[in-house]
Amino acid sequence: QVQLVESGGGLVQPGGSLRLSCAASGSIFSFNVMGWHRQAPGKQRELVANIISGGSTYYVDSVKGRFTISRDTAKNTMYLQMNSLKPDDTAVYYCRLVTGNTVYWGQGTQVTVSS
Asked: Would you give the DSSP letter of residue 102?
């Protein structure tokens, strides 16, 4: 069983930066996919970025060049560095881990981009 806990959300002005963290209770050394999703009010949850086990990454077009996903296997933690934030980035951000046939989700952290 793996538990995921996100942190690092908050209120930031447009153009600002935040770094989200997702700490896993178990080892994330062996996984299929790790990623960040977000859900804005009244919208469906969408994939923001993920890392495949081989190390390749994927970003949704709207965050390319602004967000960076990374992981620290020694700390069992995944990160999402978010720069040049826009009001449209406002959402609850969730981390997701797929290992074998099991999908784990964190509880979410709120990111609000507003002046």
From this structure: E
Alpha-carbon torsion, ordered 5, 10, 12, 14, to 10 deg: 60
What letter represents residue 102's amino acid? T
Instruction: Indicate the residue type of 112.
Output: T
Give the pair of three-digit tokens for residue 105.
């989700």
3-state DSSP assignment of residue 103: strand
pLDDT-based confidence at 29, cuts 50/70/90? low
Average pLDDT of the residues in 16-33: 85
Distance of CA 43 to the CA centre of its chain: 17
Q: What is the distance between the alpha carbons of residues 27 and 83, in angstroms, rounded to a whole number? A: 28
pLDDT > 90 fraction of the chain, expressed in percent and rounded: 77
